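User: Can you predict the 3D structure for this chain?
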Amino acid sequence: MTALNADQIRNAIPHREPFLWIDEVVEVTETRIVARKFLSPDLDVFRGHYPNFPVLPGVLQCEACFQAGAILISRLHAVGEGQVPVVTRVNNVKFRHMLRPGDTMELEVELTERLQNTYFLTGKVSSNGTVAARLEFACTAATPE
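Assistant: Here is the predicted structure, written as structure tokens:
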């Protein structure tokens, strides 16, 4: 079991503020990663997404899982020089609970299969032990142009 600090996270994926949705990685194994993101009430997204009842959009919950999956792939499965994992498929997304300002998102992503340069993963987003979202997704290694 390995934890990653902010510098190691930034070295693993190209995402940066304001679109980095991982604060810390608390565990990485051969097939699983657990990461967290504190949802500060100051996040710009809360100013415009239901301003009188701020809710974190489900698409950003998915994005946080995608980023956690990209960290897992970049740490445990070498992709080609200069390549980055990009999402190619999203399936069976279910939103079960709203995430609000002040919540801490816990992300659990598991690698379920690898076929050459394609990685199949499942993700779970939760806060305070309550599942907010579940999804399946696939990533492949791409070379930025």
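The domain at 6-142 is CATH 3.10.129.10 (Thiol Ester Dehydrase; Chain A). The mean pLDDT is 93.
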